[in-house]
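If you are new to this repository, start here. Below is one unmodified record pulled from the training split, so you can see the exact layout before writing a loader.
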Amino acid sequence: MAQRCDICGKGPQSGHRISHAHNVTHRRFNPNLRRVRSVQKGVQRRLRVCTRCLRSGKVSKPAPARKSGSAA
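And here is the target side for that same chain:
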């Protein structure tokens, strides 16, 4: 599965893992993705969104479902 944000398109970046002895090997910095339910164009969808988009409010979450039952 691709590590890509559905809102901003942020994907993995590459870098180096550097040990104490300064041995350099390749590594991957993956974005911090979360699966959230979102409303887009009036339709509820499940998206993979990075936490920066969640925090900045780029994702509109659906209204909470009302519980059916008698009022007490």
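Two things worth knowing about this chain: The chain has a mean pLDDT of 90. The beta strands are 13-18, 24-29, 33-40, 43-50.
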